[in-house]
Amino acid sequence: MKMNGGQMVCASLIREGVDVIFGLPGGAILPLYQALPEFPELKHILVRHEQGAAHAADGYARVKGRPGVAWATSGPGATNLVTGIATAHMDSVPIVVITGQVGRAAIGTDAFQECDITGITLPITKHNYLVMTAEEIPRVIKEAFHIASTGRPGPVLVDIPKDVFTEVGEFVYPEEIDLPGYKPNLDPHMGQVKRAAQLISEAERPVILAGHGIILSKAYDELLELAEKAQIPVVTTLLGVSGFPTSHVLYSGWPGMHGMAYASLTIEESDLIIALGMRFDDRITGNTATFATGSKKIHVDVDPSEIGKNVQVDVPIVGDVKRVLTALNKQVKPATHVDWVNHVHQLRRDHPLMGSDNGKMEMRYIINEIAEATNGDAIIVTGVGQHQMWAAQYYPFNQPCSLISSCGSGAMGYEVPGAMGAQVAAPDRVVWSIAGDGGFQMTMVELATLVENNIPVKFAIMNNNCLGMVRQWQDFFYEKSHVATVYSGNPDFVKLADAYGILGIRVTDKNDVRAAVDKAMEHDGPVIIDFVVEQDDNVYPMIPAGMAVDHLIEEPRPARQEVRG
Amino acid sequence: MNYNGTSNRHTITALVEDKPGVLNRVTSMFRRRGFNIASLAVGHSEIPNLSRMTFVVEGDDRVVDQVTKHLHKLIDVIKVSDISGDNAVTRELALIRVKANVQSRSEIMQIVDLFRANIIDVSPETLIVEVVGDEDKIDALQNLLKSFGIQEVMRTGSVAMSRGMDSAFDTNGSRNAKAVKPVIMETGSV
Ligand SMILES: Cc1ncc(C[n+]2csc(CCOP(=O)(O)OP(=O)(O)O)c2C)c(N)n1
User: Fold this and answer.
1) Which bin fits A75, alpha (ψ -120 to 50), beta or left (φ > 0)?
2) B89-159 adopts what CATH topology?
3) How many whole angstroms from A128 Cα to the centroid of ligand 1?
4) pTM summary value
5) Which CATH class is domain A2-170?
6) Is A521 a catalytic residue?
7) pLDDT tens, A231-241?
């Protein structure tokens, strides 16, 4: 069938099962936009800023488990996507990004709104393409989705010159993919699996450290089976939170810089770490030279380059974590590890997360209230900072894949468009965005997009009138010198909500928190709650950057009580 | 584990798609990850639309292991082989413009003969010497010619090939080997 390039893009997206695109038009991509009405299966959500499109595609992909799609015009449209692409890259999220480019003849001439977006995104995409003829479009789009969603997922960018969108050619959608340089290694080496099983059977104090890979490959059942069969405590990474039931007796939190002390200690005291679909990020290891020196390590990852990158391991296994676990579970012998499991429970009793009983508006109190009101079943999207850490510490995450957060990149501003994408992917779920007043203001332009498309995200702005996490670092490491962290001109978020036609609620008293949360839940449509919280509250525990667990700073005890054993 | 922590040179070859931007992808990866390339040579391979690159990389075993894995990870890279060691031949070509007058010319020609190099251009004040060999041989010739006054050196960077077919790290084009090999390297089970 004859089509122009723009039609080919749309037809190809439909073949890939795409139902929604986040984007914003401009000259170079306009011919693609003009083809859209012919493809009613594709819903386009018009964002207010392209960063929002990329983050929304990312939030969509994390929840849906399928690539999200964002597109934008050339030059500034393309560069506005960059933060979102980098975020998806750091967290291995499959997104396909399409950018318009200046006409072929103008490439390289510094034409109006020309920028080398394939060059710019080279180190932050899994792969990218510059398409020079319309007939390549179907193959490139098919490859883009394949590369984005298989192996270790990640963003793929496709840059298409304006006159390629208008060029007419024969539309042939390829059946097969021919990428000789890309064959992800999914099935494990059985010898390695046996060696891993052997190490597990020899271990007295094993711990599973489960990462994003569990969620990406939906290996929930296999992880549960391994943990239960050999009675191994499970710690997750921040991105791995909700990959294992948080209410399970074997669950032992998440470790690292602001992770639960008992999780970090469980890892430190173990004699075997079974690392599954994670990458020994520095927020977990601190100084790699002193990280868990007493334990052997099994490292399972689908990306061979992760193995041996940050820490040396004893048994590496390259493969899809679901397949690896399926094979491993057959080899692993049942065990009990009674003393060790009891010890891990004791660590939890000795180093609990603390709650507040001081009558003040603290973020964790609010998160606990949201947890109760939602039964722990909501999808929680966060920004970056203190509220992110507390949300991850205190929310129960009863549903798999329910913490959606920019972890590797730590991109403030994720909380608005990320939540938008998550809600679009799961219209029937309750989505709460736990937002920082700083991050919220980076991307709150998308409130208009939420209203236009009636996307009912509930925002809990944790308004401490400052860049809280940075303020905390200044308190800890810079003699409390609050340079450029305290706001003096925050907007009135309730009036702001009003300006957008959104329900806005301000809460300044602890006793009003629950009522506001309930009201937001009952309201049909987006809601903003401005929770005016303590400015000087700090996140504990804390392991300063580059340090080991022995430098862990725990919350001062008096005046605190346990909230969760 | 065979990480010995000592820094040395490794020769790595890669079969890559002959497409615009591939060299950029490869060098960008080296730059971003902080890997050191001592030399890089690129040319067509025996297969249409595929090129072969030879890298000489500096670093300990851990670094070289990471280099090969990150090369593998690039979609346009089809096959990577670490062919360091005795079972490979490496050759580089160099052109050296050296000052030569009537007195020094014959002395230079003797040295050139010793190295089985060639003189490919003669002018009243200079000679251009062409030499082929491994890096050490070229370094040695360059050293000897220094005293005459070297005006310009142009070196291609090493190209390399394993002898026979049984290179320990030859991935043999097998797709699975692409990912499995580095793991086996690491655990020292080869
Ligand atoms: C885009 C971006 N810029 C800067 C930072 C550095 N940073 C990390 S946390 C933080 C403070 C975030 O403040 P807020 O969103 O109000 O959240 P809070 O820590 O107060 O909960 C900053 C500035 C970042 N992570 N992302």
Assistant:
1) left
2) Alpha-Beta Plaits (3.30.70)
3) 30
4) 0.94
5) alpha beta
6) no
7) 999 999 999 99
